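Minutes, structural biology subgroup

Action item carried over from last meeting: produce the structure token record for amidase (Corynebacterium terpenotabidum Y-11). EB confirmed the sequence was re-checked against the source entry. Recorded below for completeness.
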Amino acid sequence: MTMAQTGTPTGAAARLRSAQASTGLSAAELGVARLYDHPHVTMCAEPTGSLTGVEVLVKDLQRVAGETTGFGSPAHEFVSATDDATVRSLLATGAHLVGASVTAEFGATVYTEPDLVGGGPGPVNPVDARMTTGGSSSGAAVAVARGIVAVAHANDGGGSIRIPAAAVGLPGFKPAHRVFGSGVLPNPAAQGFIGADLELTARAYDIPRSPLRSGLRSGLRLGMTTVPFHGDPGQPGPTAVDPQIAAATTAASALLVTHPQVAGVTPVDAPYPVDRFAVFSRIMAARCTTLPDPLGPMPGWLKARGLELASSEIADATASLTALPEDIGRAWPEIDVVVTPTVACAPPPVGAFSALSVAGAHRLDFLAQTAWTPWATLWNLTGWAALSVPLVVPGPGRWPVSVHLGAVGDRVDAATLFALGTHLQAAVARLTSGDAAAHDAFTLTEPGDIEKLGYRPVAPAHSHRHGHGHPHEH
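Output recorded by EB:
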């Protein structure tokens, strides 16, 4: 796919200037790493893709010909000579690529704090400036939430679309993807978008409009749990979940049953022991071994953990990952979609995670990130589709709880997940209309407290030679 530049000014530039003037925030704090002098567009005479004419920010992990890419760190900025495959795919949709969004360094963390690598301030959460914007596609989420663009490119290797979208009160969708391909290592990452609402998100992925409102097959079977799937194998049990988030998720699953084509909802257990995640995390750490130095605290630690792995350990982890979809299918034989919270507590204060690594406690940083996001990674490891849905529209200082709808295998398609999400938002809106108390049941007003999640090991620390890498994109 060839690429051209036009001399047309972008609306995104005007909207960014307006947002800066009204908020007093910098471009980076509004989610924008840089705007291009001119938009990049396809050379096709009449593009007919799903995003024709739509201004889109590209995540700062992608290479756009003639533009700077920084991978979330000034230390790695360079000007690319060519478009990478992801950018070529974006151009094929007809999108106008107008700039780059802020990202966590090499997409390696569930928080985005460029100050750690000398990159200046990070994105500011429009719901509550005290709260983290998550990671690693937080710039994309914030720029969309602030109205700079309606759609932004993002990618998701461990929740990196769904987590930041939930952090700012937006929907987030990870499409189904191939985990095993031509590469040496399995790839948990999928390319995608963050959109301003469910309908725009569906348009970005070219999901048919009609199933957004109907089209569910009769007898859809839902499973529901608020018990975390992932955590520290040294713990006697799973980490904790904020009681209000657990209650809101339970209520959401009950409201989903009001759809006439949903047969019912059944409580489900975690599909595998918590210690199995340690095996999968070897793959994630191994994918960090090629990251170039210098690196910030967490990416550097993940790279070191990956370099310690023997080839036999990586091969064993790959074999275990290959068997995962079949194992989960046996654990959930009668379930089409699993409903969980998206995160275990409200977005924690900015710096809550990174302070651990700055203090040298890198493993605790990883464990805290995992305790906050103990569900999303399952759908990266299997390659199955998943959708995070905010239950109400966010208001100033009121963070909306999001629930996670995860497909089990190919038993349902993306359109079905969006139909469920649309029905759920409408059902919650009817329930809360004119009832402030009901609305408040689906929102939280204070940043989450990661210490209440119980992520710290309770037993004496032992050697974790294999590490627990959790890079979200690499």
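Discussion: The longest strand covers residues 32-42.
Next step: EB to file the record with the rest of the batch.
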